[in-house]
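Here comes an entry:

___
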Amino acid sequence: MSTTATLTVPGKPMSARKIRAAVRAAVRTGNWMVRIDDNGTSTAPEAQQFRWSPIGCWTVAPDWDPSPRCGGGLHGVNHRASGFTQPGTTISFCATDPCQVVIGTNKIKTPRAMRLLVDELPPGLSFGGLNLSYCTGLTELPAGLSVGWLDLSYCTGLTELPAGLSVGWLDLSYCTGLTELPAGLSVSGGLYLRGTSLEGKYTVRDGKVVKVP
């Protein structure tokens, strides 16, 4: 983005009830994305500290460009393209315009989006891969999360993982708030527990995470 201005669609912020309804609608229609920032302030150098509108208000990209390249839109990840991240400590779940342009294989951009949840993800999301490292405000993940690989390193506020979580590889390094892993956790690749009280207590056997005897 090339400007620090924030453009909003006129209208008052939504009530908590309407926000929850908007979250369900976004998941149902696929018009959603997840992004990392600092409580609504973009951290990418080229964004020049672009500030998003308050929760429940639309933010419009002032430099929208539908070309499938970085810049010229509001960026995030979802079921269509994922894996990209940028520095930041908060997670925003956003409703988006139906127009979503895939950039490479790891992110999307859209001309307008609305932050609905901060440091909270709703159930029913699917990602090829998800990098939430350093999101210290994250305390839990939704049940039914579908993800190929998951990087939660340095998510120090995380206190538990959802039952039934299944991933390709899982990085929990320096997640100091975790004291145990749920029964039935499936990891088909690597499990990384460096810097936690869990290190040396769990291993992967036949795709299942089990306690070391």
Observations:
- The mean pLDDT is 90.
- The CA atoms of residues 18 and 56 lie 9 Å apart.
- The first helix runs from residue 16 to 29.
